[in-house]
Write a structure and sequence with these properties.
Rossmann fold, disordered N terminus, 317 residues, disordered C terminus, globular
Length: 317
């Protein structure tokens, strides 16, 4: 067995042991150019594709929590339907707090009828008026208390006939973490998550999933504050982007949806609807079309973690 394969298997085996011991796991970051999964769809390892297929609806909802933002998607029907949320009190709104509520439906292929399978509360992250969100959401605990109050109110209003999902990007992910700590029945998904949550994140940790872009801006803060305990995935979608560009939810949601589309036809429909481009790290030219779910793999797909820069004579350095 080659050294690379042994190291890759060891990288997967150790997190698997952690999963048995703690109930949550940090998955091996083998999404780079030396990935052992070159003969898998898009060069993405199976555990990354599985995480994307499970998480992409919540990445879309987290993007559209920024209602009215230029990066938000349009309609996400028939997968997700945004419904009217409760009105936010003026005092709560002054802290910068906001959220949206979505209904999630089973993929059409699974049922002839439109079947509701979950309700989603998507908390908005830091908006353009970032000072309020930083002060009331990260430095102070106001938004955390508000998020708990509105989540409880939405559950009382809409009922418990289907599971509840909480999700969010950045600060929104920290609010989703906070809610999932208090409400053990709430499944949480967070993206490029902020570490400024308040509770003990080991509570309900096995019921949370976090997907972060490698090298995004908040990784510096996670050196000083613990990231929430969760099944953690790191993807390297845009290796050449700066850390603030990598932090953006739309870029990460596009990448997660692209990866999910190798296994889910409904994700492929979103890729086509919004002309989502291939992640820069994936093999192939920038305009490479997505082959869709179940397409056969006929040749290796080698990820390009760093593209060569031309030298003085126009040659690659």
């Amino acid at each position: 067995m080659g050294k690379l394969t042994r190291n890759a298997l060891r990288g997967i085996a150790l997190p698997s042991l952690a999963l048995l011991l703690s109930g949550c796991v940090t998955y091996a970051d083998i999404t780079q150019s030396r990935s052992p999964c070159r003969m898998e769809p898009g060069g993405w390892c199976g555990f990354v594709r599985e995480a994307a297929a499970e998480s992409y609806p919540y990445a879309l909802a987290s993007t559209n929590a920024y209602l009215g933002d230029s990066d938000a998607y349009g309609s996400l029907e028939p997968l997700l339907k945004r419904i009217e949320r409760l009105p936010i009190d003026e005092a709560d709104s002054k802290t910068g707090f906001d959220y949206q509520v979505f209904e999630q439906f089973a993929p059409p292929r699974e049922s002839a009828e439109r079947r509701l399978i979950a309700r989603i509360v998507a908390f908005r992250g830091t908006d353009f008026d970032g000072a309020r969100d930083i002060w009331f959401g990260s430095v102070k605990n106001d938004q955390k208390d508000i998020a708990l109050r509105y989540f409880a109110a939405e559950k009382e209003r809409l009922g418990d006939d289907v599971p509840w999902i909480v999700t969010g990007h950045s600060l929104g992910g920290a609010l989703a973490t906070e809610v999932s700590i208090v409400h053990s029945d709430a499944r949480a998904y967070a993206f490029n998550v902020s570490p400024f949550y308040r509770g003990d994140s080991m509570v309900n940790a096995a019921n949370r999933t976090v997907i972060n872009e490698r090298g995004e801006a908040l990784r510096y803060f996670r050196k000083f504050r613990s990231a929430p305990a969760a099944d953690l995935f790191v993807v390297n979608c845009s290796p050449e982007a700066d850390r603030f560009t990598k932090h953006k939810i739309r870029r990460l949601a596009d990448c997660i949806t692209w990866i999910a589309a190798y296994d889910r036809s409904d994700a492929h429909e979103i890729v086509k609807r919004y002309a989502i481009a291939k992640p820069p790290v994936e093999c192939g030219p920038p305009g490479k079309p997505h082959p869709g779910a179940g397409a056969p793999v006929t040749e290796p797909c080698v990820h390009v973690a760093r593209r060569e820069k031309p030298g003085k004579n126009g040659e690659a350095e």
